[in-house]
Design a protein that fits this description.
This protein is 35% helix and 20% strand. The protein is α/β, with parallel strands linked by helices. It binds zinc ion.
């Protein structure tokens, strides 16, 4: 057993206080054996090989709960700031031109970037499933969401069949990857197809994912079929959908289709109102926020304080490199820290670690420094003899630039939850 001692140990669950002069005992396979005050652990576990104490804050590996790795070669190529519809039109034009899903180099580099950032798990939305073989065997756990869209019933059913075929073609999945069918958004998938996918997820082994209440264009389209998205469809000569706008807000519409609950990640909720957040919380739906992407596309932030007040425990994701500057989920927490100074740093750190693991259904494998898990271990060094007074605020400070991956994460999706 390896003993790693540091100025501070942050558990990552958003509840436990950081441990001053703490230590983490790690088995050879990366499993956490014990966490506690260093003096007590040295006495209790004399067989452990303790390394010299580090001037650093220790953190579990990060959880990036929402990415689109197949879009990685679009990095920096899709300007934002004009709202979702102009952004997505631009993104689709670049995508048609560059075929980013075929760019193995860019996808491979993106996976490398996740690992270098200390990422233990990723939720990866994919239309082509080209990312699965890049994720196979890597030192992180990946939940891949095979995304389906289609405004008409016929288009939705064809896309669903194609997605199922792509999943079947993968054959036996690598131990660290799972794949679930996922609806794109409430406004871009035929309601019956969306309901079918949601019902499949309800019986699945992990959650699926839905972009929900991301922007005002979604709200107006679902209310009465109007707004900028209607113009977007008309411009593209799209077939008229064979369903009527439900006249509901995005959250209540998702609930009506069976797509709001523990089996579906509600991604974004940037445009959600307080009463809708109450509905999300009551349904027990896990929430994922992508604040830097929202800032890039819509110049908006998710209503984080209202979410926390509603009892939600959001996860964080970077979204794709077509709307975000990096795949480092801690940069999302840092972006929130600047803009929500009243939110506890411990909550922001948990959003990038333990709450992310819980949202993805991976809390039994990683996300927190808990005995029995293999979450990986990160160190954020500070100047010798100058331990920060608040270690969670310290790791959220952009000046804490250095980051070391001391222990690689190692969860396998086939693993059972550890016995208490
Ligand atoms: Zn997305």
């Amino acid at each position: 057993v390896r003993g790693i001692e540091a100025s501070w140990v942050v558990i990552g669950d958003g509840v436990s206080p950081p441990i001053a002069r703490g230590a983490v005992l790690v088995e050879d396979d990366g499993r956490i054996a014990a966490v506690g005050p260093a003096d007590a652990l040295r006495r209790a576990r004399p067989e452990a090989r303790f390394e010299p104490a580090r001037d650093a804050v220790l953190l579990p590996g990060l959880v990036n709960a929402h990415a689109h790795l197949e879009l990685s070669s679009l990095r920096g190529r899709v300007p934002g700031g004009r709202g979702f519809v102009p952004w997505v039109a631009e993104m689709l034009a670049r995508r048609a031109e560059l075929a980013p899903e075929a760019d193995d180099e860019a996808i491979g580099a993106a996976v490398g970037e996740l690992i270098a950032a200390g990422t233990a798990a990723v939720g990866d939305v994919s239309n082509t499933l080209a990312t699965v073989r890049h994720l196979a065997g890597m030192p992180l756990v990946a939940r891949v969401f095979a995304e389906v869209f289609g405004m008409t019933r016929a288009a939705g059913e064809v896309m669903l069949r194609l997605a199922r075929e792509r999943v079947a073609e993968l054959g036996q999945l690598p131990e660290n990857v799972s794949v679930a069918l996922a609806p794109h958004t409430p406004f871009s998938v035929h309601p019956e197809v969306l309901s079918t996918i949601a019902a499949l997820a309800r019986g699945g082994r992990g959650p699926t994912s839905l972009h929900l209440a991301e922007h005002a264009a979604e709200r107006s389209y679902l209310r009465d079929g109007g707004g900028p998205f209607a113009g977007f469809l008309a411009d593209r000569g799209a077939d008229a959908p064979d369903w009527a706008p439900p006249g509901l807000d995005p959250v209540r519409y998702a609930a009506r289709l069976g797509a709001l609950g523990p089996h579906v990640l509600a991604v974004h909720l940037t445009d959600a109102r307080p009463d809708e957040l109450d509905v999300v919380a009551a349904a027990g739906a896990p929430v994922v926020l992508c604040p830097r992407s929202n800032l890039h596309i819509e110049l908006r932030l998710p209503p984080l304080e209202a979410m926390l007040a509603a009892g939600l425990r959001p996860a964080l994701g970077t979204d794709s490199l077509a709307s975000s500057a990096s795949l480092d989920v801690l940069a999302e927490a840092r972006a929130l820290r600047v803009r929500f100074p009243n939110v506890r740093p411990g909550a922001l750190v948990a959003m990038a670690t333990g709450w992310g693991a819980r949202a993805l259904g991976l809390a039994h494998l990683l996300g927190t420094l808990t005995p029995g898990l293999r979450p990986g271990l990160l160190a954020f060094p500070h100047p010798p003899g100058a331990a920060p007074s608040d270690p969670e605020a310290f790791v959220l400070d952009p000046r804490a630039r250095e980051r070391q991956v001391l222990v690689r994460p190692g969860g396998r999706l086939t693993e059972e939850a550890p016995r208490p």
